[in-house]
Design brief:
single chain, four-stranded antiparallel sheet, three-stranded antiparallel sheet, 23% strand, transmembrane helix, Band_7/SPFH_dom_sf
């Protein structure tokens, strides 16, 4: 028994009883999957009185699919044809109305859009061929045409501060600015309900997702790189909405107060450590210079006197109350020699 199958649903059999007897109509159901073996499809059907099996080739199954597809296509064509016929009638009646109410109808039929605007026209609910109209004057039919104005100028969206948990588990508050514009007026009206609202929500989500994959030091030091990656991600996602994201800028990154204090203490300690290292290196270099100077002065006794006079000159140049009495080195040498001779005479006696 050959039973035609609906490829979109389970087979149904209305007929007599099966091989086991039992008259009367019975409703069958598919009890096993079709098994392809050598181009043959085997399907088992359960009827009211037993099981009925039959075989169908792949060509027959393909013919059934083609026949059902053709039927659906013809049904769609019939519905489109009826809608097209009704549309032509309405368009004709609209033109008759325009002619009968001339010239008052021209006030309703002619519209103007600015240089930065485009008009997307719908006629009987369908987009008019030719894309968006404008800038300038364009014509619509009364009662059957509706149009939407689309502004092509760049818009600025200030993303509100977003609480983000960074990759190294630090909570920060980040806000940004997004610059975008409508690149395709028709797509922005036909493909999305509210392109601007959708873009703004996506900008907030993208900001949180992007910051969540970065460490804190990357967020603070690589703002330009993060802004560029956000711009590419937003532009790719909003292309299907007719939106072009031109630029994304991160405004501010706010850290918790305790974290700010900890970072300030860490930076201060690092600066103090560097200052101590620099001071130690300066003292080391100064000691080396003094050693070299002492060696030079030791080779020339007159150099010490010149250094002494230079020091006096430096002190006298400053306006202070210090009084300096220069004492020649030779006088001290004379007293030292006298003392040594006195001690020597007393020791012989």
């Amino acid at each position: 028994m050959m039973v035609p199958l609906d490829p979109m649903g389970p087979p149904i059999v209305n007929g007599g009883g099966g091989a086991g007897g039992g008259g009367g109509p019975g409703r069958g159901r598919q009890t096993g999957p079709a098994e392809a073996s050598g181009g043959i499809s085997t399907i088992s059907i359960a009827t009211g009185g037993g099981n009925a099996s039959f075989q169908r080739t792949d060509d027959e199954y393909r013919n059934v699919l083609m026949r059902n597809t053709t039927v659906r296509k013809y049904a769609e064509d019939d519905s489109n044809g009826e809608a097209s016929t009704c549309g032509r009638i309405l368009i004709f009646l609209s033109w008759v109305l325009v002619v009968l109410t001339m010239p008052f109808s021209l006030l309703v039929c002619f519209k103007v859009v600015q240089e930065y605007e485009r008009a997307v026209i719908f006629r009987l609910g369908r987009l008019v061929q030719g894309g968006a109209k404008g800038p300038g004057i364009f014509f619509i039919l009364p009662c059957i045409d509706a149009y939407a104005r689309v502004d092509l100028r760049t818009r600025t969206y200030d993303v509100p501060p977003q609480e983000v948990l960074t990759k190294d588990s630090v909570t920060v508050s980040v806000d940004a600015v997004v610059y975008y514009r409508v690149s395709n007026a028709t797509v922005s009206i036909a493909n999305v309900e509210n392109a601007h609202h959708s873009t703004r929500l996506l900008a907030q989500t993208t900001l949180r997702n992007t910051m969540g994959t970065r460490h804190l030091h990357e967020i603070l030091s690589e703002r330009m790189t993060i802004s560029g990656s956000m711009q590419l991600s937003l532009d790719e996602a909003t292309e299907a909405w007719g939106i072009k994201v031109e630029r994304v800028e991160i405004k501010d990154v706010r850290l918790p107060v305790q974290l700010q204090r900890a970072m300030a203490a860490e930076a201060e300690a690092a600066r103090e450590a560097r200052a101590k290292v620099i001071a130690a290196e300066g003292e080391q270099k100064a000691s080396r210079a003094l050693r070299e100077a002492s060696e030079v002065i030791g080779d020339s006794p007159a150099a010490l006197q010149l250094r002494y006079l230079q020091t006096l000159n430096t002190i006298s140049a400053e306006k202070n109350s210090t009084i300096v009495f220069p004492l020649p080195i030779d006088i001290l040498t004379y007293f030292m020699k006298s003392k040594e001779s006195y001690e020597a005479s007393h020791s012989h006696s």
